[in-house]
Amino acid sequence: MNETSPELVEISLIVNGKPRTGRCEPRKLLVDFLREDLALTGTHVGCEHGICGACTILIDGEAARSCITLSVQANGAELVSIEGLAQGGVLHPLQQAFAKFHGLQCGFCTPGMLITAIDFLRVNPTPTEEEVRDAMSAVLCRCTGYQGIVAAVMAVAHASSPAAST
Amino acid sequence: MLNFRLLAPTALIDLARIPNLAYVRHENGTVAIGAMTRQRHVENSDIVAQQLPLLREALGWVGHLPTRSRGTIGGSLANADPSAELPMALLALDGSVVAAGPGGRRTIAATDLFNSMFSTHLASDEILIEVRIPVMVPGSGFAIEEHARRKGDFAIVGVAVVVQHEGDRCLRARIAACGVGSVAVRLSGAEQILERNGLGPAAINAAAASAAAEIDPLTDPNSSADYRRHLTGVLLGRALRRAAGLSPVAIH
The pTM is what? Predict the structure, then answer.
């Protein structure tokens, strides 16, 4: 092993609308940078190899795994993490629906579930339940509380669809 | 590869910062896709939807939306996971890749690209820069069938088929499979059966039986070689019936 301290890399990016900077080793994972350097611990570290989805954040508007992205790769990017969803103390409609439909139990997967659902509903605003189940399979819930999660996403999709007023 | 501790490189070069490596173009009967084009972009490309519907179907099987946001087509091909769908799709579509290195550029056919598990025939000083796939003949039948433990997982076995047919007659068949050995493979014995005997139910059954005998699958904690051989026959039968229009509904 190289005994000299590793070179630190300057990183500047926008997180939840605010410009942020930091210095970290080039090997540092984006999720660790968010949690340790920016103190944004709402994004969770689960499997650390891109399977479980707990670390999912928005990178330039698209849901992505922050545990298989190096922080240097996000230099200059615009990120949204779970901390950026509520606006002015008001929960995001998906957060409200998760509360209403019991879409969370232990809450560990919830940040990844919410970010995944946001990106999915942007791409497919009027999904069928089967499409919701397919999309939300991108995140694992060890409490197996999928029923409430699917119900919450469906409720938000219905509420924002043109047919909702009928 | 890094997170799985399969690789511990001393240096990494991020190709994602090269904008000229991300594009989808239609060039005289060939779709050219930059190696660093995100899987999600390829999936949403109108050119791919119109000219390479099989590739679009394959991408639906690749991981999940949040992994396709960052994953690239060239990255998946160069990774050469034997259970991945994109190497299989490239084989079924008679595609090739362009490699670039100090000695210039060369084109490598899909059938010559994959060496063994997680290993390609790219030289150590070459990078994959482009994927080239001839457009599918309009009216071709095609299908992908796959079995995995969970949606979005790498396949235990997957099959991809493209058939050009006139009624029951099969002018040309391309069949590829993943999860059935150390690399994704073409199943030429099964292809020849269809090209000889057409796309009727008997020929499809014979091709499926041939495919199961053609492969040499591995046994791993997920599944035995026998199970994979069985799955290959079953999935190929389904895929061919769908591609031939005998069973129009996809079962996902």
Answer: 0.93
